[in-house]
């Protein structure tokens, strides 16, 4: 990662006079607009260095332009050399933007942090440091204000950096608990006391579900699962269509992981009367969810406005319904494929589909580039492009980096192990269902 101690000292010097500090080597961001003549600017370290220098500027609009160009730079090329030297400095400046910036600046800074984590994903220590260094500033920012863009952006970023840098179950559960407080706020929680609006609620459920895909449900608390299933079921009756879709996806992943069936099996084997009551309650809850899914898969309209959203909802819940019905009949469902450039990515589970869709939305135009060249994402999704354009990639790993990449404790192997465990668990007592939602054969 380079000389981190020196980088921290440099950042501290700038932070001592935060609002008035101007780097002597900075370039006016008005000169860093992305045009055909300057599109190469952010492709190299020099252009990114200029953007980084501009993050020390006083004017918020200048920092916003710099962050936008950094996002373009990370999307268009894997900037390993730059992050190796400037990761900590960039991370700290993004944290400063989250502390003092506008909602727009916070949104952009969150995107940069998430893309930074994805870029260093092959290096487990660096990715973990991005997560750990971000927990405190993120938690503080989430406690202040209730702006939808600000909170949604931070929750998205928290989910991404945890997905990449969460080195153990405890780290992932910590982030999921932070996010869940925005799904179902309770007295005494460390979030804004007011009930979140549907935009924040939808974003929180999506982020929580994204992290849920990495967890082994067998190790999670039964009481927590019962509460989450019941709460998500209630959200299926809400008027907001995108909220219903997010809740449906979360329930699909919960059913896939197998927790509801696990809870039922545990309760059935007990002679405790309270456990028998739990069985009755959960069986009723399962029946309620199936009925809700069936109704939403055939809804004629009336809830929500956009026809596109209605079609998305109906398609999603038809798939969930088929998945659940096949699941309980021990049947099989077909796999889904997504085109990535000239290649095809095979999707085997709901969890994988949720991961792909979430990362596709977060990376935007950089999704294809990262899937084609980012070895972290390729390993997570077991994806090998037919043609690797090495000439256009700056991904040259040292021997040390390769050893870290292959380490059994790395984020990559953690993801692989979780995926294999999930597949083994699903093959014991039940089989996979139909996972095609909206991705289908869509060109990315």
UniProtKB/TrEMBL annotation:
InterPro entries: ARM-like, ARM-type_fold, IFRD, Interferon-rel_develop_reg_C, Interferon-rel_develop_reg_N. Residues 407-420 have a biased composition (Polar residues). It comes from the Eukaryota. Gene3D superfamilies: Leucine-rich Repeat Variant. Residues 374-428 form the Interferon-related developmental regulator C-terminal domain. Residues 1-33, 407-444 are annotated as: Disordered. Residues 24-325 form the Interferon-related developmental regulator N-terminal domain. Pfam families: IFRD, IFRD_C. Belongs to the IFRD family. This is Interferon-related developmental regulator N-terminal domain-containing protein.
């Amino acid at each position: 990662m380079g000389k981190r101690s020196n980088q921290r000292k440099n950042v501290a010097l700038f932070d001592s006079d935060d609002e008035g500090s101007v780097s002597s080597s900075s370039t006016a961001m008005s000169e860093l607009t992305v045009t055909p003549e300057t599109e190469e600017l952010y492709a190299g370290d020099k252009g990114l260095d200029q953007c980084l220098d501009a993050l020390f500027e006083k004017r918020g609009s200048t920092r916003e332009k710099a962050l936008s160009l950094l996002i373009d730079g990370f999307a268009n090329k894997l900037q390993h050399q730059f992050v190796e030297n400037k990761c900590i400095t960039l991370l700290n400046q993004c944290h400063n933007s989250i502390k003092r910036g506008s909602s727009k600046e916070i949104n952009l800074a969150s995107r940069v942090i998430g893309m930074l984590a994805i870029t260093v994903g092959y290096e487990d220590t660096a990715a973990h440091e991005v997560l750990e260094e971000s927990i405190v500033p993120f938690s503080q920012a989430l406690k202040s204000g209730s702006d939808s863009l600000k909170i949604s952006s931070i929750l998205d970023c928290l989910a991404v950096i945890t997905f990449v840098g969460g080195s153990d179950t405890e780290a992932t559960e910590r982030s999921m608990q932070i996010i869940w407080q925005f799904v179902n706020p309770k007295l005494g929680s460390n979030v804004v006391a007011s009930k979140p609006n549907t935009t924040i609620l939808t974003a929180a459920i999506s982020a929580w579900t994204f992290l849920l895909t990495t967890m082994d449900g067998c190790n999670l608390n039964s009481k927590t699962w019962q509460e989450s299933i019941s709460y998500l079921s209630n959200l299926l009756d809400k008027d907001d269509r995108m909220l219903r879709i997010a809740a449906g996806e979360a329930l699909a992943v919960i059913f896939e992981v197998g927790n509801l069936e696990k809870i039922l099996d545990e309760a059935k084997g007990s002679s405790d009367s309270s456990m028998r009551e739990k069985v009755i309650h959960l069986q009723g809850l399962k029946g309620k969810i199936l009925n809700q899914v069936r109704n939403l898969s055939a809804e004629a309209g009336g809830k929500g406005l956009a026809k596109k959203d209605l079609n998305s909802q109906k398609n999603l819940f038809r798939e969930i319904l088929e998945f659940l019905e096949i699941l309980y009949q021990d049947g099989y469902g077909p796999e889904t494929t997504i085109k990535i450039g000239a290649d095809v990515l095979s999707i085997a589970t709901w969890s994988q589909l949720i991961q792909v869709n979430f990362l596709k939305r977060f990376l935007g135009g950089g999704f294809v580039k990262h899937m084609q060249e980012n070895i972290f994402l390729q390993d997570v999704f077991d994806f090998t492009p037919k043609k690797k354009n090495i000439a256009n990639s700056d991904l040259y790993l040292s021997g040390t980096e390769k050893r870290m990449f292959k380490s059994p404790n790395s984020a990559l192997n953690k993801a692989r192990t979780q995926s294999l465990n999930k597949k083994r668990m699903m093959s014991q007592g039940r089989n996979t269902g139909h996972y095609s939602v909206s991705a289908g054969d869509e060109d990315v």
